[in-house]
Amino acid sequence: MFVYGIRYAAGAIVCMAALHLTEPAQAQGGPAGVLTEIVERREVSETVPVYGQFVTNRESEVAVRVAGAVTEVFVETGDVVAQGDVLAVLDRELLEILLRGAEAALSEAQAGVEVAQAGLLLAERGFRRVEGLRESNAFSQGQFEDREGEVARARGEMARAEARLLNARADQAQAAYNLSRAEVRAPFSGTVMDVGIAAGEFVQV
Predict the structure, then answer these.
(1) Per residue in 159-193, pLDDT tens?
(2) What angle do CA 161, 150, 125 make, to 5 degrees?
């Protein structure tokens, strides 16, 4: 998990220089000797620890959307990232296998709909042929009922095939979604405040 947010820090360094004033030293019987140095102006570089508090106007915990093994983590605490940057990547192999399986099932379901459509057209054609003989001596009530039953069964099979197609499309969309979420991306620009995962770990949703 990444604790992630935009951080703004404000602070001030208060430096105090102590000015120590003393009275001239007096030796017994007269003034003491005084050492003097020429005053020079020079730049001094010094590292000063500053204590402050980060204040965020936007903060978000970026969690993984799918379970899997973490293969790479690209950020560390304190890194500045832009919206859309990849923070970490999960193992894609299994997700790609599941997507290929879902795509194969979708193709099979589409073929099933085509077969069901052909069966329905054939049943309706046979029904209309028998129905057209109703006013002739060749008409058979038994054949008419048989053809009527075939149409009903074909329509039922068509409905089942369409339902299987809808389920296959949903499974394919889910598999594609899971694969796309193998990359954990920054939802907005900001600073990484904490990284709670490491390469090699298995994460759960």
Answers:
(1) 999 999 999 999 999 999 999 999 999 888 888 88
(2) 95
Q: What is the gyration radius of the CA atoms in the chain, in angstroms?
A: 40
Nearest-angstrom CA–CA distance, 85 and 76: 13
Compute the distance between CA of residue 104 and CA of residue 110 in angstroms, rounded to an integer. Answer: 10
Determine the Cα–Cα distance for residues 34 and 37; give it in Å rounded to an integer.
10
Q: Which residues of 168-184 are buried (b: 16+ CB within 10 A; e: fewer)?
A: beebbeebeebbebbeb
pLDDT for 41: 75
Nearest CA to 189 among 114, 108, 109, 82?
82
Tokens, residue 71: 């293969």
Contact 88, 70 (CB under 8 A): yes
**Of the listed ranges 4-8, 100-104, 157-161, the one predicted with least confidence:** 4-8
User: Does residue 138 carry a pLDDT above 80?
Assistant: yes
Output the CA torsion sign for 22, 28, 29, 30.
negative
CA distances from 176 to 90, 95, 106, 108 (A): 14, 8, 13, 18
Summarize pLDDT for 25-68 with one digit per residue, the tens. 455 555 555 666 677 777 766 666 766 666 666 777 887 888 88
